[in-house]
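#onboarding

Welcome to the new folks! Below is a worked example of what a typical request in this channel looks like: someone posts a single protein sequence, and someone else replies with the predicted structure as tokens. Don't worry about understanding the tokens yet, we'll cover that in week two.

Example request:
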Amino acid sequence: MFKILSYIIIVLAINTASGFYMPAFADDDLFREQEELLLELINRARANPLAAARSLGLNTDKILEDLPEIADILVNGLPPFTYNGNLYLAAAAHNNDMLENSFYSSISLNGLTPEERILNNGYMPKNTGESLGMLGFSNFVEAEDAARIIFSNMFKDELDAKRDRQRNILNPDLKEAGISIGSGAFHFGVSSFNVYLVTCDFALSAAEELEFELISLINQIRQDPLAAAVSIGINTDRIISESNELGNILTNGLPPLSFNDRLYASARGHADDMLEKNYFSYESLDGRSIEDRIIEKGYDPLVSGEIIGSVLTVSGLDPFDIGKLIIFNHFRNELDLSNDYPSVILNPEFKEIGLAFISVDSEEQVKDDQLTSKYNLFVCDFGDRI
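Example response:
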């Protein structure tokens, strides 16, 4: 079950001078600088909440007194949000929808919730949150000023002792963000006024820390495959002398792969399917290939590849060591010149990655009846987009 954390801020700062109406804009680039500024302001507030509160003229002693449940966060801060393109797409789509249809809510007119929109844009969340902001005006307001005003009100709302909703900016269970700013005419019945609209989508990926650690290991191998090969006792001199292409990769390495939520969703889906239906294969029981599965998750592949692995172990072993064993087994096979094993880890065409690792109790015994066992399933999808 996804955790939904959302709140709405509306600021109407309408001046009395003669008005004008702006066309609707939620363009990808028009407000990019202001979107980056808003993310920077939010991250400053996360890093030092009390300093941010003081800069807005708030009484920090009163805040600490009123909010003992988040005192540690207020004093010590939180890590910054990382920008995520999929969250940005979800935020921008909702901003456009609100501008085009003149509504203001985290629930779309078709009933979609923030986490559903985030899922539809290829992000697999564990936790989600959404914050909305609106600034209405008749005399023109600069976009940068609007971003600062909306941030100020968002953050003040999070520090309100009477607030009965969960927080987003000061939420330790949210790690990534996508922010969209749009502007245009907003209609309330027969009345219209100009607005800046902001949608901030926040999330924590369903991918676990272990899975990111295993991706990091794969990237270490790609960046220095020669050292990785030597560490497992492979004769690299023979490979370099007999294979120009592989020898060049071993010598010079490859760029690291970027995590992609859609590839993660595909890998996780295939792992869950194999576990549920008790099979182990690159091809799904219904005949789908890796390419079919990633396309279903919204990934438009130029190239694609997959590694799967399974290991039955005694309980208590470090899952990272199990994943490392699977990764290095595939790496060793890729360096074996005597077979036609496909190049995946050392494939220069791949640019992105999604990795799923599942460990469940198993009824099978590994060594003797006194030891419980774990079935460990590993699926790693690779690709590059058109």
